[in-house]
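This section describes the prediction task in plain terms. A model, or a person checking by hand, is given the sequence of a single protein chain and must write out its three-dimensional structure as a string of tokens. No templates, partner chains or ligands are provided. The sample shown here is typical of the held-out split.
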Amino acid sequence: MKIQCKRLLFAGITLLPAFLVGCVPTSMGLATPIPMQPWVADRIQERLENKNDHRVPILPPIPPGHRAFCEDPPDRAEILRAMP
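The expected answer:
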């Protein structure tokens, strides 16, 4: 019990000035800002980007007389908006 009391007293004496001066890095708790290099944000963005974002599929040409299958027919709202 005496040893624990001495350790607690020692910790209090050594840490108290640090809290008063403000040199404890976690003095703001979880809201403590952590300094980061400017390139870190770029690396995180590159890692999170989808690799297929910049790859464009090249389709074969559409033969004459055929309609492209990728076009969706217009719905009623689009038709009504296009009418004068």
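For orientation: The chain has a mean pLDDT of 76.
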